[in-house]
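Subject: mismatched residue count in predicted assembly?

I count 457 residues in my input, but I want to confirm that the predicted structure covers every chain. Input:
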Amino acid sequence: MYLPDFDYYVPASVAEACQLLAENIDCAKVISGGTDLLPKMKHGLLSPQILVSIKKIPGLRKIEYVQGKGVVIGAASTINDIVFSEVVQQKYPSVSNAAHTMAANQVRHSGTVGGNLVSAVPSADMPPILMALNATATIEGPNGQRQLPVEDVFCGPSKCLLEKSEIITEIIIPDQAMTGSTYFKFALRRAGALAVVGVAAAVQVENDVIKDARVALGAVAPVPMRAKKTEEFLIGKKISDELLEEAGKIAASECKPITDFRASEEYRRDLVRIYTKRALRKAIDHGHI
Amino acid sequence: MSNFIVDNNGIKRYLVTINVNGIEYTKVVKANTLLVNFLREELDLTGTKKGCELGDCGSCTVLLDGKPVNSCLILAIEADGMKVTTIEGVASTSNLDNIQEKFLEYGAIQCGYCSAGMILSAKALLTENPKPTEEEVRAGISGNLCRCTGYINIIKAIMAASGQEVLN
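Triage response: the counts match. Full output below for your records.
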C-alpha cells in the first residue's frame, strides 16, 4: 500500500502551522501521530496535497501541572507519553489507565492525544475520561485562541468542530472537586481492539452522598456522549448498590447505540448498564483509578 | 528538512539523514516515502517485514529512538535526525543477540514472518523492564500478531532471555 504524493511542511510554531493551513485551506491536513491519517490516505479516503506536521513544534508535547489551570497535556503528546507521565499518574491515574487501554504499544508510541480527539471516532478511548473530568481543549487558529470543552469538540462520526485552519494545542484537565474517576472499556481483545463500549465516571463523594457526578459514554452514539440523565439522577443521593444499579439502567436507556459487526444494539445497552454501575462503584471506592 | 529539490514532474524531494543501526544515511526521499519502504528499498534492509501496512499486525516494528513503532505508519521524512534500530541491528557483533538465540532455542520461530517485529518488541520490553512477569511479556508483544506459534513459545523465549524460569 502506497501513499499518494503530497508536500510536507514542518512549521516551527503553531502560528506558522495555522497560517500554512489557512493558505491551503482545501488541500492541507495536519499530521500529528499519523496512525489514523495515514491508513485513511492509503485507503484513498483522504488525499491531501499538503501535510503540515505539528509533532515537532516546541512545547506541544509537554505534560505539566500548572497552578490555577490544572494538568496541561500538549496535544502532540503521544498516548504512551500520557500512560507514563508522572504528573498524570500522580494526579489522575484514571487518565493514564484509560490511555493504556488503547490500541497496542507501537500505535501508542506514535498516536497523539490531539489526534485521538480530532479524528472524532465514536469509540475513541480518551474522550470519555476527559469528558468525565470536565477537560477543555485549547484551539488555536489564525484568529487567535479559544477554549472548547472536550465534549463539544465532536459533531459526528469522524467530524469535529474545528475550522480547517485550527489546531488543538493542549488539553487541560482542571483542578476538581471530583473525588474519584475511572474508565471501563469492553473490547473483543485486550489489545489492538476498538471499544465496543467505553464508560467513564467521575464522582464527588461526601459522607456517602454523591455531591456531583459526570458519566461519559463511548461507542454508543455518533459522538462520545455525556449521560446527563444518569448524572442528574445520582446527584444528591446516598450511595447504595440499588442506586448504582438504577443509574446503570438509566444510562442504558439514554445511550443511542447501533448494531454493527462488533456488537448488537441490545448487547451494547446491557454493557452500558453493567459498566456504568461498575465504573461508579470503582470511582466511589478507589479515587482516580 | 528545509532542503528539497523539485523534480521534472513538480514533485518535491527532500534530503533526510537517518541513523539506522548506528550508520548515518543521507538520502533523497519523496514526502510519501514510508519508513518501512525507505528501509527495505533504499537501504536493502529487508529484515523488516510488511504485513497489514495499517498498523495492526506489528510485523514492520522497528525502534525509533528506542521506542517500538510501526514503520508502515511513519514517514521517512518524520524520522529525519532520529535513530532507527531494525532487526539487522539487534545483534551488535556477528553473534546473535540473546533474544534471537532464545527464539531459536525455544522454537519461537515458525514461518518467521513476525519474528523481526516480535524480537524488536521484546528488545524494547527487556531494555525497559529486564525482569518482566509473564503478563508483562504478553502485554509487551500484544502489538505483534503471530499466526503460527500460538505465542506460547515466544513468551517462553522472552522469559528465558530475561534469565527467568520458563513456566510450562
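The mean pLDDT of chain B is 95. Marking this ticket as 'not a bug'.
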